[in-house]
Write a structure and sequence with these properties.
With about 230 residues, the chain is of the alpha/beta class. Helices cover about 40% and strands about 20% of the residues. α6 crosses α7 and α6 crosses α8. The structure holds calcium ion.
Length: about 230
């Protein structure tokens, strides 16, 4: 079945360019020029992914993302936000509002499609996978065993929980506060730089086996676990 992408973008030229690229990749698409139009489209169909421009006339892309994530009917639809260059604070707010990922304008079609494919892959993955293998890294959630190139890696319980969260939610950017909520628990009061400390430790353990490259820093925003290395 063809996956459908809803493009919410007020500039017709960008909508057209995105639509063209998506069709060439085998996706079908729907389009909306603002938040109201997007709601009209969502009444009659559920897209597999939404490409959402942040800057829209009237309600912003952030408003739309928040509303969609609050509604159980639409909460599961992944969202990739299109944001302005350098607006790191916006990216953090976008991710905290429930967006899965973002692409910075101006973007290349190649970059955008790579992120679309990554999100689609993640969404289509079976939920209760218990063995994750990424290159030479293997994480077995049944035995809590982590190996790199066949060498066992000793992790602290927190490091293991963090890695487990990453491998279970690959190809998606998380802010430090989202990682704290998901790995440490929403009701713990820990400083955000604790996340950095644990990330550094994980990377150091993985470095001798070249597995540290999968834990990627998204500058000014947070971290992403990705098998794509560029
Ligand atoms: Ca715009």
């Amino acid at each position: 079945m063809t996956a459908t992408v809803l493009i919410v973008e007020d500039e017709p030229a960008i909508r057209q360019m995105l639509g063209f690229a998506l069709v060439a990749e085998g996706y079908s698409f729907l389009e909306a020029g603002d938040v109201e139009a997007a709601f009209q489209v969502l009444k009659s169909c559920t897209p597999d992914l939404i490409l959402l421009d942040w800057m829209l006339p009237g309600l912003s892309g952030l408003d739309l993302a928040r509303r969609l994530k609050r509604d159980p009917e639409t909460a599961a639809i992944p969202i990739i936000m299109l944001t302005a260059k350098g607006a790191e604070a916006d990216k953090v707010r976008g991710l905290d509002s429930g967006a899965d990922d973002f692409v910075t304008k101006p973007f290349s079609t190649r970059e955008l499609l790579a992120r679309v494919r990554a999100v689609m892959r993640r969404v289509q993955q079976p939920e209760n996978n218990e063995l994750f293998e990424v290159g030479p890294l293997s994480v077995d959630l049944r035995s809590n065993r982590v190996t790199c190139q066949g060498h066992g890696i000793d992790l602290s319980p927190t490091e293991f929980r963090l890695l487990k969260f990453f491998v279970s939610n690959p190809e998606r950017v998380y802010t430090r506060s989202q990682l704290l909520d998901s790995v440490w628990g929403a009701d713990t009061y820990i400083e955000e730089r604790t996340v950095d400390v644990h990330i550094r430790r994980l990377r150091k353990l993985f470095e001798p086996y070249h597995c540290d490259v999968y834990i990627q820093t998204v500058r000014g925003v947070g971290y992403r676990f990705s098998s794509r290395i560029d």
